[in-house]
Amino acid sequence: MLRRHLVTALACACSVLAFSALAADKAKPTPTAKELLAASKPSEWRRPDPQNLIYMQLPTGRVVIELAPDFTPLHAANIRTLVREHYFDGLAIIRVQDNFVTQWGDPNDDDSGDKSKIRPLGKASKTLPPEYTRSIDPTLQWTPLPDGDVYAPQVGFSEGFPAARDPATRREWLTHCYGAVGVARDIDPNSGSGSSLYAVIGQAPRGLDRNLAIAGRVLQGMPLLSGLSRGAEPMGFYTKAPQRITLGSVQLASDVAEKDRQDIEVLRTDSPTFAALVEGKRNRRDTFYTLPAGKVDLCSISIPVRDAKATATSKP
Amino acid sequence: MLRRHLVTALACACSVLAFSALAADKAKPTPTAKELLAASKPSEWRRPDPQNLIYMQLPTGRVVIELAPDFTPLHAANIRTLVREHYFDGLAIIRVQDNFVTQWGDPNDDDSGDKSKIRPLGKASKTLPPEYTRSIDPTLQWTPLPDGDVYAPQVGFSEGFPAARDPATRREWLTHCYGAVGVARDIDPNSGSGSSLYAVIGQAPRGLDRNLAIAGRVLQGMPLLSGLSRGAEPMGFYTKAPQRITLGSVQLASDVAEKDRQDIEVLRTDSPTFAALVEGKRNRRDTFYTLPAGKVDLCSISIPVRDAKATATSKP
Question: pTM, whole model, 2 decimals?
Fold first, then answer.
């Protein structure tokens, strides 16, 4: 059992969902994530609106992204328009920069691209207002974390997304945690449209917070974006076009026949079970951890996602 | 230039070394990393002791790891012994868990392995004292960071490694930042030997700090460890043995003929140039960033590494 115990324990440090394995065969005071999730109530899980779910097909599988219209409504609407126009179909992952981002869009919309072949955005806007932050809305769900943050006065989860707040300015914004999907732009803050997006694949680049719009979050399929060969060119661009990963169909779940949709459920971040998972990560007591951290940082918390059709759970 | 500006600016948020690109063609008050590094003095760079440098050959290239004998001397010595015995040659990367770690060692030293084929450790110790923390030594170089930390009272760089301190207990320890190389172990804190190691490939799992020994840090080749397909089994194990990545030769630089060594230089974390790079990341002012973060977290700082034989610089 040596290696298994080892990796189990190691794994537990990363995913609340992995808390389970080690404890499965040992009685422990701290309930494991597996136990907590098994005991969770159906009402603690939410089904994202299919209008906010994007299925992005890669050669290796499907990536599921949830848009965040509460924070970036104009970007969500524009991305929906682009998706409905099949704008992304056949475009590509153009860069993978280690410990930073995987970015996709139109390869021709670049210095090295063929400007004459740039794909038109159709009915979608070419530019949008920044939407980097929004005024704090008391009607939005907010679950604060207790351990502070290097970058923001307050951090927690708003409507299920990792977020930060500044009571002084009454502003709230989504944070660049692992799996965040941001809107690439030019120098002009108004130049983003959602036609080129990036997903965070490394240490949270929180310095981007409030400087770029976050359009959503990857719910499933992160390994398909993070486990790619890094581009050899500066900023992770691929040296040769054939190295790019071509996107298959990119659709809104709402445009997919119901029988073909994934029945994805996300644990509510304002649920008792989520609170117990967070506390279990802050103060995990088992035979492996001799010293519980006693703290947890926003971007180290994973939000459980499951396919209601299956019984299995997975993390982004 | 649209896309190039975009990615340049994006890239800059991740690597101090990438600050350069955007500024290259624009006059800006904040000197870029490229400018700062170009102006750095030879005395600001250190050449790691070849006795502390490990060359780990993968099918895709070489990973260079620097051991941290100031923090884990017994582990450094044991790993040197294992390397000199060619213990790691032909072993494998046995798991890649998304947003967590890539781990290598003896595939047979696992539940699914063939116990009869476990590779002996030879003269190396099978177990070692934990070495999770060490008493603060005033003679060790310490460069504190100004912006605080969620997990520790103080964070900064000690002898060139990301580290944390607790003045109350007078203890100091290396932190699980991106690229940290940790010592896998069993439940027993004394069960680690260095025969199985992991590298952090995602959001810093700081909850592991002070619960596992950090033997060193990857100086070059991180993309070769982070850009691998994630294992489909729980905790990132590969489903089939052939999916594992076999290790080629694993050597100490000191055992390699001088002419064949990489002449690696690492920017001193107590140098004025490093301080300027950190400040540039904390308060970057350019046409892209409308709002400088004003802060930086320990694990978001990359330490410049260069091959003195080449003129190019690179980040781990």
Answer: 0.91
Tens of each residue's pLDDT in chain B, 316 residues:
234 334 434 433 333 333 333 334 444 567 888 999 999 999 999 999 999 999 999 999 999 999 999 999 999 999 999 999 999 999 999 999 999 999 999 999 877 788 999 999 999 999 999 999 999 999 999 999 999 999 999 999 999 999 999 999 999 999 999 999 999 998 888 889 999 999 999 999 999 999 999 999 999 999 999 999 999 998 999 989 899 999 999 999 999 999 999 999 999 999 999 999 999 999 988 888 889 999 999 999 999 999 987 644 444 4
| C-alpha closest to that of A178 among A299, A92, A39, A9 | A299
Predicted ipTM of the assembly: 0.91
Q: How far is A203 from chain B (nearest CA, A)?
A: 4
Structure tokens at A147: 């351990």
Say how far apart CA A222 and CA A219 lie, in whole Å.
8
Q: Do A184 and B10 touch (CB under 8 A)?
A: yes
B-proximal residues of A, 270-289, CB under 8 Å: 281, 284, 287-289
Mutate to test the interface with A, among B17, B145, B187, B283 (most CBs of A within 10 A): B187
Nearest alpha-carbon partner for B235 in B105, B91, B100, B92: B100
